[in-house]
Amino acid sequence: MVVFADKDTTGLGHEYAEHENGAWPYWQPAELDGYPAIAYANEGSEASRAFLLSAERLVALLVAADDKDGTPHCTAAKDVAEAVLETVVAGI
44 falls in which pLDDT band (50, 70, 90)? Predict the structure, then answer.
């Protein structure tokens, strides 16, 4: 799943606030091509892992994807986010 959150003006602020209130046990601040990002998930869950990216023209990009067994959390979501970002930047 890929979501372009172009109406969200808080960038990553909402997720940081949720995390500070106990949400998202798996939490890894990250950077993708110079843009701030977060890899986050419910620890131990087999559900999708999310990778959220905040950028200038793209307020937020949320990617959720299931990881393959044995891969680190959010690997698949990060790979998809990289591909989407590359495509978006190429189109600008």
Answer: low
Mean of pLDDT values over 69-82: 83
Q: What are the residue ranges spanned by the domains of the chain?
A: 2-91
**Phi, psi values for residue 73, rounded to 5°:** -50, 140
CA angle, 39 as apex, 33 and 44 as ends, to 5°? 155
Q: What is the pTM of this model?
A: 0.73
CA dist 41 → 24, 27, 31, 34, 53 (Å): 5, 7, 17, 22, 14
Q: Which whole-number Å values give the CA distances from 38 to 79, 90, 91, 92, in the listed order?
A: 13, 23, 24, 23
Query: Would you call 71 helix, strand, or coil by DSSP?
Result: coil
